[in-house]
Amino acid sequence: xxxxxxxxxxLPHGTKVKVSNVENGKSVVVTINDRMPASSRVVIDVxxxxxxxxxxxxxxxxxxxxxxxx
Length: 70
Hints:
The chain is mostly beta strands. The protein is built from one helix and five strands, in the order E-E-E-E-H-E. About 10% of the residues lie in helices and about 40% in strands. It has a five-stranded mixed β-sheet. A hairpin with a 5-residue loop joins strand 2 (about 15-20) and strand 3 (about 25-35).
């Protein structure tokens, strides 16, 4: 919750991903540390701290882009 982490359906644990909020241009690098159900319609589920930095805590969901970091 307080780390810069996220859950994803397919990316392996430990993968660094740059998540960018399409609406406001803010971005943050998170580490994948959890798995989401394959049936989920959400692409990525970020921690509260990451959502705060991306500026969408109150909105709950926004359009984002993902870039796997090397």
